[in-house]
Every structure is written in C-alpha cells, then in structure tokens.
Design a protein that fits this description.
alpha/beta, five-stranded parallel sheet, two-stranded antiparallel ribbon
C-alpha cells in the first residue's frame, strides 16, 4: 500500500523510484564497499534501502540511528544490539552457525536467540562481531548515520573505515541531514576516519507535480476510495512532492473521510511535526537560536540571496554581522537540510526545501 506510513519493504508498495532502485541494486550487487542514500527528510530513503536489499535477497542488519544520543555509548551500542538481534531473529540458521564464535568475542554475551553488548570497561568488540557476519555476506545497513557525532561517532567511523579497507563487507548508509552526513564521511576533512574512501551516492529528489498527482490517484485506487474533484490538486500544491507528507494526507483522508478543509488540517498537523524537528535543531544551538530563526523567516519571505539575508539579520539586531558568522549560520542550516543552497549560473540563493516547513516561517 502506498499510504502505509511505515517504511516500505516490498517493491509493489514503493511508488516509482525505478532509476534510483536500479542504481542502488547495482551498487550493492557490484560489491561497492559503501553505498550512501541522501535526500531531505521524508523522501523515502529508508524505504528505498529496504526494498532494494529485499529485492537483492541478501541478508542484512539494519541499525536505526534516528534520534540516538551521540554522547551516549550505551545508546549507540543498544541500537546496534537491537539491529543485530532482529537479524538473528529472522536468520536463525546464521545464529546457530555463529553463536559458538560470538560467545568468545570480548564484550559480547549470548542471550536467548541473540546477543548482549557491553559498553563499559570491557567494551564489545564490534569489529570482530561484524567480521563474523561477513562470513555470510551480510550487508550492514545504517539508517540516519549522521546522528553519530563526537567521540563515539568518530570511534564508530573508525570501525567502518577498517571494515572498508580490510573486509569484503558491503555497507549502506542513509542520511537526511546531507551536509552532516558528508562531514561524517569526511568528504572535505583529511582528519576524518573515512576521508578519501570512495562511496556511491544516490540522491533522492522530491516528486514532480505530475508524479505527486499520480501517486495520490493510485494510492486512493489501492484503498478503493474516490477523492472529490480538486482535492488532489490542492494537496499537490500545498505538499509539493514530499512523499512523507503525501502519504500522511492519503492516510488521513482514508481514516476520517474527505471533507472541506482536509488539506489545510493535514498541512497544520504536518507543520507541527516539521517545526518540532527545527526546535530540536535549535536546542543544540542555543546561543544562535534567534539568528537561525530569523534566517528562516528571511528566506521564507523571499529574501533568498546572501546580501538580502545579511541585511535582514542586521536590521533585526540593529548591528553589523560579519560575513564569517553568517557563513557559519547558513552552513549549519544547509548541513541539516533545513535550507538548500542553489546555484543557477552566477545566481546563488537559498531556499527551504520542505514546503510545509517554509509555511511555518511565512507571515
């Protein structure tokens, strides 16, 4: 079902994405050590990854790092433990074959049909654990890996770098905060553990208006529902190709029925979710909260060029702001995918890629 709010796992439930799926499957099947899926929030990165891996019929461990506390080794290790135990629950035959080897690994204990990882003084030997999985050509899939920051994140990146260099494991990563993910991969940082290692990147884009319209029509057909004339065009105009919001609209319509104002209701609920994500971003950057917010207001109001954004901030604060400070602020928003930097020839400007989030800062 297209309107299932959970990540898709079957090809028939994934709308379109034919080219991206073929590219992903080719990258993984051709033994690329690292495949990366990027794109702003709610474009279906996790769905593409899971459908692709299932289509290839390869065993894979999926670790979801969304919202992980990067300063807590316990939190990180519990996420890894959970992903591996889910894998062993599905692949009992691999569990039975490996369990005698696993119990000899430092910091790894057997627990029913799974393992328990230690993150204390006797830290789990993740490197050896992953190498055991290599024997069965298991793919390691890490969702929203950009959440891994600080010393624990750097330590984990070092493990991935070692596996890249000295194993045949295939690793897949996704990230919606594209700039932060590139930072984690060491794209421009020679001191980063993963610097200089090739990865194949697949970039997901939003649906076109025609694609959004077709997605909604087919989704309602699957549900045996006929939408009123005009409501699909209204939803396409306000939700603008972000598949997560389109799914939310479709699901809501099926559950409560079509009525006047439905699209606006969905947009308001979506705004609350999008704004909460932005507030979580601000909580980690308290000294500059007001400046980040004012930049978003400026861009949403049509002040999209560097000079216009700077003038807006200076008018609000009543003082000059250095170019270097503005650069850092803009980079922070771009890295976290709240803004996009667009270059069209010599014309460079910024935009808010999510129309729902943009509407939060208008007016």
């Amino acid at each position: 079902m297209y309107f299932d709010v959970r990540p898709k796992t079957k090809r028939e439930d994934l709308y379109d994405r034919e080219d991206e799926l073929k590219e992903f499957e080719h990258s993984v099947s051709s033994k690329n050590p690292l495949t990366v899926i990027t794109g702003i929030r709610r474009l279906g990165k996790t769905s593409l990854m899971m459908v692709g891996l299932n289509e290839l019929e390869v065993p894979y461990v999926l670790v979801d790092f969304r919202g992980v506390n990067p300063n807590s080794r316990m939190d990180v290790y519990k996420r890894i433990e959970g992903g591996i135990n889910e894998f062993f629950r599905v692949h009992r035959e691999i569990w039975r074959a490996l369990k005698d080897n696993l119990k000899n690994l430092s910091g790894v204990s057997l627990m029913g049909f799974g393992i328990s990882l230690s993150w204390g003084n006797t830290r789990a030997d993740l490197l050896s654990l992953f190498r055991e999985l290599e024997k069965y050509e298991v793919v390691l899939a890490f969702d929203e890996v950009q959440y891994l920051r600080g010393p624990v994140g750097s330590e984990f990146a070092g493990i991935i770098a070692h596996l890249y260099d000295y194993s045949d494991l295939r690793i897949v990563m996704t990230g919606s905060e594209v700039g932060l993910l590139h930072d984690y991969l060491g794209v421009n940082d020679p001191n980063a553990p993963l610097y200089g290692r090739y990865f194949h990147e697949i970039q997901l884009k939003r649906f076109t208006p025609e694609g959004s319209r077709d997605f909604l029509i087919k989704g309602f057909e699957q549900a045996g529902v006929s939408p009123p004339v005009g409501i699909i065009d209204e939803a396409v105009a306000k939700l603008d190709g972000i598949v997560g919001w389109l799914v939310y609209f479709g699901r809501k319509a099926i559950e409560v029925g079509f009525h006047e104002g439905l699209v606006d209701e969905v947009a308001e609920e979506a705004k609350a979710l999008a704004l909460q994500e932005f507030r979580e971003f601000l909580e980690k950057r308290s000294p500059a909260q007001k400046r980040y917010t004012e930049i978003m207001k400026a861009v949403a109001s049509g002040k999209k060029r560097w000079e216009e954004i700077k003038e807006h901030l200076e008018r609000v604060e009543g003082k000059s702001i250095s170019d270097s400070v503005l650069s850092r602020l803009l980079k922070g928003l771009v890295d976290s995918s709240f803004l996009e930097k667009v270059s069209e020839g010599r014309n460079v400007y910024y935009r808010i890629p999510d129309p729902v989030l943009e509407s939060c800062f208008k007016g």
